[in-house]
Amino acid sequence: MAESLPAQTLPRWRRAVLKVGSNLLAADGGGLTARHAQALAGFVASSHAQGRQVVLVSSGAVAAGRALLRERALPGNDLAARQALAALGQAPMIALWQSLAQRPVAQVLLTHDDLRHRRRYLNARATLRELLLLDVLPVVNENDTVAVDELKLGDNDNLAAIVAALVDADLLLIASDIDALYSADPRRDPQAVPIGHVPVLTPEVMAMAGGSGSAVGTGGMHTKLEAAIKAAAAGIPTVLFDGRNAVTAQALSDGQLHGTLFDASGNRMQARKYWLRHAPAAPGRIRVDDGAARALGGGRASLLPGGIVGTEGEFHRGDMVEIVDAAQHPIARGLCQYGVAEVRRLAGKHSREIDAVLGYSYGAEVVHRDDLVVLTEAGA
Ligand SMILES: Nc1ncnc2c1ncn2[C@@H]1O[C@H](COP(=O)(O)OP(=O)(O)O)[C@@H](O)[C@H]1O
Ligand SMILES: N[C@@H](CCC(=O)OP(=O)(O)O)C(=O)O
Questions:
Q1: What is the ipTM of this complex?
Q2: Given this structure, which CATH class describes domain 2-271?
Q3: What is d(CA 104, CA 87) in angstroms, rounded to the nearest whole number?
Q4: Which residue among 177, 223, 241 has the greatest number of ligand 1 atoms within 8 angstroms of its CB, and so is best to mutate?
């Protein structure tokens, strides 16, 4: 199948999320196997050697848990049973990656709810950024004990897209047990043809996708296309490739894609600025002095405590706040790392005093420049 699609150039990337589905880690009904994971771990290692960063989103916990109980009566297939199997199989799944990765592996369990909740979103992002700085390999899975969305929907594809936006990745890679998106589910339609490039995910493209063809995979092509839509909206292209094919994995390291490329709908910066400009703001404001107003107006500075002269209204850590100058003119808006009570205590202080004033620190910036948009910039 793969041979029918010519190789294409992989978009340039520095930080990527790689999603690995259950099918690649566990054969139908069987336990975990390194068979395909090995080549994918090889891709991660060569990416690191090229100075790139990878976050892995890995499924396989339920399949691993089920295999562990093989000798015993299997629990049913209801959600609680699958949650129990996920809890049982999570550690072996992480252990598999640890046995293949050439660096320490960190387990990160997230739910969609965590990522909708602004404070937890910031905390998850800070943790993942720190893990990348520490040069370890984060392996993310949905926290199935407290969330059942994914066990129903195979939503690790969607989770991977959200994580890609969270860590500001410039590429989402989805490794599956099929080499491309086909014009119809190839398991049902022998006439289906592979599609190498999808510039826009139209309803016609969405209609091509069917469910999973296997007993261990859950989402099928539909959730992969949903993930590609989410990533595209965040300015991130997605590629789908056959994770069973070691040659394909190796080619990725050389910047060659055998698979399907889904374009992003704009560039990442535009997508992020658009989101920052239009996300609903809390009823809170931070007033800054002339120096800070000038620095922020330049579009490249973070808001540090020293430039803050006051606050108005209520806001919590993670809320969108408006930043105003001494004359109350709005100059920027952004996600605030501290709640209003903390900002009041930090106003006028040096960043290095944060720890002493509060007894803890979420970082030197009250609003980080990556989370800030200047309202006078073009397009405001
Ligand atoms: N249009 C399509 N193109 C390709 N694969 C499709 C399509 N529609 C449905 N599928 C099925 O989706 C499967 C991949 O999804 P899934 O089994 O959930 O894998 P994973 O474990 O990688 O998430 C393929 O093996 C294929 O049977
Ligand atoms: N959290 C579940 C993942 C379920 C899931 O999304 O599976 P898949 O469709 O194979 O990516 C597990 O680890 O088994």
A1: 0.95
A2: alpha beta
A3: 21
A4: 177
